[in-house]
Amino acid sequence: MSAAPLLSLKGVHTHIGAYHILHGVDLEVPEGEVTMLLGRNGAGKSTTLRTVMGLWAASQGRVQFKGQAIGGPGGQRTTPEIAQEGIAYVPESMGIFADLSVQENMLLAAREARRAADLDAARLDWIFSLFPALHKFWLYPAGKLSGGQKQMLAVARAIIEPRALILIDEPSKGLAPAIIHNLIAALQELKRQRTTLLLVEQNFSMAQALGDSVAVMDNGRVVHSGRMADLAADQALQQRLLGLSLGAHQ
Fold this sequence. Notes:
The chain has 10 helices and 10 strands. The protein has 250 residues and is an alpha/beta fold. Strand 9 (213-218) and strand 10 form a beta hairpin. Helix 3 (102-109) packs parallel to helix 6. The radius of gyration is 18 Å and the shape is globular. This is ABC transporter ATP-binding protein. Pfam families: ABC_tran. Keywords: Amino-acid transport, ATP-binding, Cell membrane, Membrane, Nucleotide-binding, Transport. Residues 7-244 form the ABC transporter domain.
């Protein structure tokens, strides 16, 4: 008997104003694994992450985390409450504060720290080993970082304290191949530590390198779920679900 998923969405619908974006999403995120959320632009992937975080409320269905309702009618929690449960979110916009230093950005993300000396030194050293540029630019304004360095800061903020689940929306978007390679290496280190990740990603070689399980969305629904390795090995399925093959994006 398989263990219950860390996060599950059951029949989730989301409306944004007059627009009906999610149409009954069913999704399970196993604990200790990396789940990739794939699909064409406009399929509802980012809306799914934002619905999990309570930024947009589910109008129908249920979002459950560790077996408890955090979203849906009658069980909707606020975004701060959801974050307090141990879920971190890295939006596509990265969500960093450009006018604040790298250090100040990290402090804001660390719930238990009020000054730099309060940060867990061992954990900070580990983060610097993943993202050396953050150490180099520790006192620089975050707005002066390169695009890749800003993405590293966004991920670093999500892991400054241990989190049960990290949601990341298109971490490789707009980044140079060398920076993507570094980002993959950092996320693989999180994976080795059995950090549970749910990633929206358009870079299929990155998805293949990181993913344990995969869900493919289309028109606001999950139309396929399974093991990432199985999807990567089946070009006909890739073509049907995504309109291209992963092999074309190595």
